[in-house]
Specification:
The protein is elongated and about 75 Å long. Helix content is about 60%, strand content about 20%. The chain is α+β, with helices and mostly antiparallel strands and about 210 residues long.
Length: about 210
């Protein structure tokens, strides 16, 4: 019965954190986080039982838990994507997966208080700091764009236009393509200024195409 309570508590904790991930449409959502937390809790329970000599088995209770940490690390690495332009996505998802596994281990070990506190802290970080990040983005954020223009000299026009919009523009690299010239840009500044820059840029006659890089 005690083991059942540990597993159920792990499912609830994983579900609470997974709910936040689901609301924000992240790759590792509700079911994924529940399964990770449940699996980690089960591994902890089995490890404890083995170390206690159940069914003639014996060993170090930390060995399976250590393998969970390593295994979940590989799972989290699979959630990290390097997008075009060098931007890295999925770091928060990977960190959440790792944290959820540790919470599952806590519940599996019978540390209900520790698991509950860790769940509350994780939810506070995911829910609360997202608003802080949004406020920071209004003051300063960065976007990566790929702009296709007609001529190589259009790079100077892009630089001049960025200054009029109040954003900082860095040319990451440029290449000649069949239909013109492709410029990969790093745009930094207040979110409102960047939105104005991208909205006005596509209306410029020398710009053929623009997309996120």
């Amino acid at each position: 019965m005690n083991d059942l309570l540990r597993l159920l508590a792990a499912c609830v904790a994983g579900g609470i954190i997974g709910f936040e991930r689901e609301v924000h449409d992240k790759p590792a959502g509700l079911r994924t986080n529940v399964m990770i937390c449940l699996g980690a809790a089960l591994f902890a329970i089995v490890s404890i039982r083995f170390s206690a000599g159940v069914d003639g088995a014996s060993g170090d209770p930390a060995r399976i838990a250590a393998q969970v940490v390593t295994g979940v690390g590989f799972l989290g690495a699979g959630a990290i994507i390097q997008a075009r332009g060098g931007a890295v996505l999925g770091l928060t998802t990977a960190a959440t997966i790792w944290t959820v596994a540790s919470i599952g281990l806590a519940f599996g070990a019978g540390r209900f208080g520790l698991g509950a506190v860790a769940t509350a802290i994780a939810c506070g970080i995911l829910f609360g700091l997202s608003r802080v990040e949004q406020r920071i983005a209004r003051w300063r954020t960065t976007d990566h764009l790929e702009v296709l223009t007609q001529a190589a000299a259009d790079s100077e026009r892009l630089m001049a236009y960025s200054r009029t919009c109040g954003v900082e523009l860095r040319m990451r690299y440029a290449s000649k393509v069949e239909s013109g010239y492709s410029f990969h840009l790093r745009v930094s500044g207040p979110k409102a200024a960047i939105d104005g820059f991208t909205a006005g840029l596509i209306a410029e006659p020398y710009v053929i195409q623009m997309r996120e890089a």
